[in-house]
Amino acid sequence: MKQFGKVLSLFGPFLGLAFIYGVFLAVVPSGANFSSLYNTKTILQQSVLYGVGAIGMTLVIISAGIDLSVGSLLALGSVVTALILRRFGPTGLSAQASVGLACAAALGGVLACAFAGFLNGLMISGLRIVPFIVTLGMMQIARGAAKGVAENTVVTTPGSWLRELMKVEPTMDSTFSFAPAVWLMLGLMVVMFIVMRYTVFGRRVFAIGSNEDTARLCGISVPWTRIWVYTLCGVFTGVASVLQFGAIGVGSPTEGVAYELDVIAAVVIGGGSFNGGQGSIVGSIIGAIIIAVLRNGCPMVGWENHIQNVVIGAIIIVAVGIDQLKRARQS
After folding, report:
1. Which of 13, 204, 293, 304 has the fewest CB atoms inside 10 Å of its own CB, making it the most exposed?
2. Is 53 helix (H, G, I), strand (E, B) or coil?
3. CA-CA distance, 285 to 120, in Å (whole number)?
4. What percentage of the chain's residues is helix, strand, coil (to nearest 5)?
5. CB 156 within 8 A of CB 259
6. pLDDT band at 14 (very low <50, low <70, confident <90, very high)
């Protein structure tokens, strides 16, 4: 039974994805082309925003924290990116200058979110306020800042290559290639898998989430590690905000409402535990793909949006319940 439990912990997210996908294969009408190559590309493209955000949230949850501000930061980052493009991107720029400006705009959006994440970590560590309260406050601050700098309207911009990132079928090869953002998500997944598995920083994050007092006695700088964790969460949310801008082509201060719930759901479905000390970068990406499959498949079956919310909520409860049962058996 112990070996079975280890196998289930390791392959549980993959089995869950296979099960959900199989259910939709069985119930979606054949004319909807759920299993087509184009729809597979669409599902992966839809999973990117959840997946990139979930990478950062995985670090937070492993450290026994929570970040409710990522939805508002998604809006703030997209607005900052759009404002930079609009302010410094008049028509007539050379191709090289346009690429450089787009990179600078993307960097601006990421840095804005990273700074907010740094402030979250600083207040949590320095003022010893619980993460729920700090990030709840930052959620309101970032949303207000996004609306303020955007003057309560969407920020339109000239065209840029950032819009190519989230194209389901890029112009380079519409048959076999996936959206560039999918490859970006997979690359970030590999990098952070290595960081969390084989570096001192990753071990410290797991140690803090498992037992903060023991980690402190072992000489780990808990405050600085937490600051880095929340800053990195802000960085990954910033990357997601740039991709969000690329998907809709404007900076919108109203985007990202309830985004944090989908990101947290992806981490929990992927094996993360709210008790800390447990989580998987790969599992969180699989959780994001599961959510994307649900968002994609439910309309094909004819289920309305509220049914999707009920299904995702039920899956979260089941995932948390399984985690609690495992912990009860271990204790």
Report:
1. 304
2. helix
3. 24
4. 75, 0, 25
5. no
6. confident
Q: Cα-flanking dihedrals φ and ψ of residue 57, to 5°?
A: -65, -30
Can you spell out the DSSP letters for 48-61?
A: HHHHHHHHHHHHHH
3-state secondary structure of 238: helix
Residue with tokens 């949310």: 237
Radius of gyration (C-alpha) of the chain in whole angstroms? 20
**What are 293's two structure tokens?**
């499959």
Q: List residues bridging with 155 in a β-sheet.
A: 251
Q: Could you read off the pLDDT of 82-120 as tens digits, one per residue? A: 999 988 866 555 556 678 888 999 999 999 999 999 999
Length of the chain: 331
The two three-digit tokens of residue 197, written as one number: 């598995």
Q: At what angle do helices 222-248 and 95-126 cross, to 10 degrees?
A: 140
